[in-house]
């Protein structure tokens, strides 16, 4: 990994990846919320966390 120097402030690459993964999750939540409303997903908080971790892994893999 590493960091990015933006005007003297070091920003970790993982932070940038996490923000990208959160943006993708936010877009997916619009679709997944329909399934939550129809009771297809029992515990949405745990489900969203799991989806976020999978997306973060995919974004991290894409950066490598």
Précis, in short:
The chain has 2 helices and 2 strands, in the order ββαα. It has about 60 residues and is of the alpha+beta class.
Outline the structure in words.
- With 64 residues, this protein is of the alpha+beta class.
- It is built from 2 helices and 2 strands; from the N terminus they run ββαα.
- α1 packs antiparallel against α2.
- The longest helix has 25 residues, at 13-37.
- The protein is elongated.
- The N and C termini lie close together (9 Å).
Q: Note the main sheet.
A: 2 strands, antiparallel
Strand order of the largest sheet: 1-2
Count of structural domains: 1
Low-confidence stretches: none
Number of strands: 2
Estimate the helix proportion, in percent: over 70%
Order of helices and strands: EEHH
Percent strand: 5-15%
Structural class based on helices, strands and sheet pairing: alpha+beta
Average pLDDT value? 94
Gyration radius over CA? 15 Å
What is the count of DSSP helices, taking H or I runs of 4+ residues? 2
Transmembrane segments: 6-28, 40-63
Pfam family, one: DUF1656
Keywords: Cell membrane, Membrane, Transmembrane, Transmembrane helix
InterPro entries: DUF1656
